[in-house]
Amino acid sequence: MDHRSTVQDAPPTSLAVLEERARARPEAFGRTSLIVCESLVRIYQSEGIEVQALQGLDLLVEEGELVAVVGASGSGKSTLLSVLSGLDVPTAGNVRVAEWDLMTMTARERVEYRRSTVGFVWQQTARNLVPYLTAKENVELPMSLAGRPRQQRRTEAAALLDVLGVAYCADRRPGQMSGGEQQRVAIAVGLANSPRVLFADEPTGELDTATSNDVLEAMRSVNRELGTTVVVVTHDPSVSDHVQRTVEIRDGRTSSEVLRRTATRDDGTEHEVAEEFAVLDRAGRIQLPQEYRETLDLVGRVRLTLEQSHVAVRRGQDAAETDDASSDAHRTGHGRRAR
Ligand SMILES: Nc1ncnc2c1ncn2[C@@H]1O[C@H](COP(=O)(O)OP(=O)(O)OP(=O)(O)O)[C@@H](O)[C@H]1O
């Protein structure tokens, strides 16, 4: 279809044109997602110095997903989790969890959100469990705060401890349990009031590798058996072995994702495949991995060219490459310096 003639022929304000434009408008970002972070910015002021902990972060999580958020120390993981758990408000952007708009919530709504919609597991076991209560009393505590009847509390606390594989710890206090057992009981506490999302901040940070694996597998079974959406924040890259999707944050933005799926070989046997993707944000930006930049000495201005099936990024400085890039640009009709 000749686009120019359509535009010229149509009366600019006709109802038909407006209706067509409205139909063609893309759906709102993350309209059907359970968690939506759009261009999130969080700036801290510390002793007169500004720290940009989140720098325009975009993230969507669908209902029922099990997602790990990884990143180096200082990349902004804990800041993101503080925002999502309703403890902190971003400087700019949009953030929604289920029907809650976390930018505009009142203090009272914040309390209700934290009680009804989200559960937490923190790195420090002391923050998760009351030391003088048994495992089952710890799980029942948030249920009684929510005003649930005694018998129901008992039955559901026992069922949760069972799903987490720590039913045998029901009558033990935290001091009588191992670190891994305490974290699994902490997951049960986080799930006590059937939240839509369970957030875990470095839940395996104080555990050895074998125990960490048990705790991550416990999160996986919670996700599978109870259908709870789970977001685990960690600096441990091995977490991606346990989840379908790992999002990496770099410099306060989502930079790459690893997706795992089960593939079938020609002989019919199944195997796990992990694929890494760079994330293109809403403004069209991607982060080039540091090793790519270093290997090709990409600094400052670079050349972007649109090829038949991909976009190429080259050094902008060399005359030879400049010639190459211009001929590519002529071939495809595009070619520009990246800003
Ligand atoms: N309350 C605060 N005041 C000032 N700066 C802060 C504050 N909280 C975090 N920051 C800074 O924001 C940046 C991101 O911190 P954040 O704790 O979110 O990173 P992280 O990825 O969770 O790191 P870690 O893995 O070490 O916990 C860091 O530079 C940090 O120093």
From TrEMBL:
SUPFAM superfamilies in the cross-refs: P-loop containing nucleoside triphosphate hydrolases (SSF52540)
A Pfam family hit: ABC_tran
Q: Where is this region: Disordered?
A: 313-339
Gene3D superfamilies in the record: P-loop containing nucleotide triphosphate hydrolases
CDD domains listed in its UniProt record: ABC_MJ0796_LolCDE_FtsE (cd03255)
Where does the signal peptide begin and end?
A: none
Task: List the keywords (alphabetical).
Answer: ATP-binding, Nucleotide-binding, Transport
Q: Which SMART domains match?
A: AAA (SM00382)
Reply yes or no: does the keyword tRNA processing apply. no
- Residue ranges occupied by any ABC transporter domain in the UniProt entry: 35-286
One GO MF term attached to the UniProt entry: ATP binding
This chain's protein is named ABC transporter ATP-binding protein
- Supply the source organism's classification: Bacteria, Bacillati, Actinomycetota, Actinomycetes, Micrococcales
